[in-house]
């Protein structure tokens, strides 16, 4: 009878050294070992991580975050349009930037949904995943930079 020493963990009054000694004695002597009633030995069960499931959930989370940012940008666009070009110095610039950001975010959402559908464990998909993941990262950086530029122009007119 072979027992993996790393899988044995004492629960109550016994120590790890005692558990190792018990396993070694049992393997060497092939004799029965009496265990005190207060000592329990538990074998750990290790779950294997499914990388495809993990990657899919992570990608869906990114899509949801992207959509939340898209909704916030649509609200900002609504307020810019409500202000009108007479009350906002950079009206057309901010409006065009928000439209560009919305288009890039929608494209990013579709890219992420496509990447989320691909099977990570299938080696034939690795090249596609790599290319689309690189495109998604470029789109995320573009959205971030455009968001910073748009936010720096603000919706409020400076006080004179």
From TrEMBL:
Entry keyword Membrane: yes
UniProt name for this protein: Ninjurin-1-like
Main location: membrane
Keywords associated with the record: Cell adhesion, Membrane, Transmembrane, Transmembrane helix
Membrane topology according to the record: Multi-pass membrane protein
Record's compositionally biased regions (Polar residues): 1-15
Localization per record: Membrane
Organism, scientific name: Priapulus caudatus (Priapulid worm)
Domain of life: Eukaryota
The family this protein is said to belong to: Belongs to the ninjurin family.
Keyword Transmembrane: yes
Entry's transmembrane regions: 92-115, 135-155
Record region (Disordered): 1-29
